[in-house]
Specification:
The protein has 10 helices and 6 strands; from the N terminus they run ααβαβαβααααααβββ. The protein is 43% helix and 15% strand. The model is unreliable at 154-163 (pLDDT under 50). A 6-stranded mixed sheet has the order 2-1-3-4-5-6, with helices on one face. The protein is an alpha/beta fold. The longest helix is centred in the N-terminal third of the chain and has 17 residues, at 10-26.
C-alpha cells in the first residue's frame, strides 16, 4: 500500500525521487563514501530560513559540501554557557570542534523579514510573537555599530537604541542594516574561544556574504571583514 501524498507535497516527493536517481543511481559511489567515511565538509554556512535563499541551490553544492545552519535572519548569538537548549550554538560548536571546518560563511540577503522585524522593534513596534522579537535583537548591536555609522549617525546609547538616526533612514537603506547584521554576527563568532583560537592560528576563516534577491548579485566581505565588495554583479 502506497502512502498518501498531499498535493502540496507531491512536488517535494518528486524532488526526492530525482535526488535518489542522481545520487543513488548516477553517483552512488559518492553517497556510499559519505556513508562509510562520514561527512567532512570544509564550510559551515549560516543562512537565513527564508524560502527564497536556499544555500545549497545558490551554491550548487553537492551532498557533503556544506554543513548548514539556518535560522531567522542568519544570526549568530554571542558565546554564552547559560541554557541547555540552543540549536545555533550547538551546530556551530559541532561544525568547528568536531568536523573541523576551515571556513564559516554567514549568508544574508536583501528583503530579509527578520531584519524588517528588527527595524520594527527599533521603531517601537516589537513583533507580537513569542520568540521572533527577542531573537532578532541579536542583530541590534551590529546595526548600531555598523549601519548607523555608515549613515552618519551617533552611536547607540547604553540601552542599545539608535537615537540620532531616523528609523526611516534605516528602512530606506535596509541593505545596510542587513550587511551590518552580518558583520555583527561575525563579531559574535569571535566571542567563541575555540573559534577565536582557530582564527588567530590561521586554521579557520570567517566570511560574510550578502545576496541581492532582485538581481542575483553576491557581495562578500573583504579580508578583514570591514566592508562588502561585489563578487557577482
Amino acid at each position: 500500500m502506497q502512502a498518501f501524498i498531499h498535493p502540496t507535497l507531491s512536488k517535494l516527493f518528486d524532488g526526492i525521487k530525482g535526488f535518489q536517481q542522481r545520487f543513488y543511481g548516477l553517483h552512488s559511489t559518492d553517497m556510499q563514501h559519505l556513508v562509510e567515511h562520514g561527512q567532512r565538509p570544509k564550510v559551515l554556512l549560516i543562512a537565513c530560513s527564508d524560502s527564497r535563499v536556499d544555500p545549497a541551490l545558490l551554491t550548487d553544492a553537492a551532498p557533503g559540501d556544506l554543513f548548514v545552519l539556518r535560522n531567522v535572519a542568519n544570526l549568530v548569538p554571542p558565546y554564552c554557557l547559560e541554557g541547555k537548549y540552543d540549536s545555533a550554538r550547538s551546530a556551530i560548536e559541532y561544525a568547528v570542534r568536531d568536523l573541523a571546518v576551515e571556513h564559516i560563511v554567514i549568508l544574508g540577503h536583501a528583503h530579509c523579514g527578520g531584519i524588517q522585524a528588527l527595524l520594527n522593534t527599533l521603531s517601537g513596534q516589537k513583533p507580537q510573537r513569542d520568540f521572533i522579537g527577542d531573537w532578532v535583537s541579536i542583530a541590534m548591536d551590529g546595526c548600531c555599530r555598523y549601519a548607523v555609522d555608515q549613515l552618519g549617525g551617533a552611536e547607540a546609547d547604553n540601552s542599545g537604541l539608535v537615537r540620532e538616526v531616523d528609523i526611516d533612514s534605516l528602512r530606506t537603506h535596509q541593505h545596510l542594516v542587513e550587511r551590518a547584521s552580518i558583520r555583527g554576527s561575525l563579531d559574535n563568532l569571535c566571542s567563541y574561544p575555540w573559534i577565536k583560537e582557530r582564527v588567530d592560528t590561521g586554521k579557520l576563516g570567517l566570511h560574510g556574504w550578502w545576496f541581492d534577491l532582485e538581481t542575483g548579485d553576491l557581495w562578500a566581505t573583504n579580508e578583514d571583514n570591514t566592508a562588502f565588495l561585489p563578487v557577482i554583479e
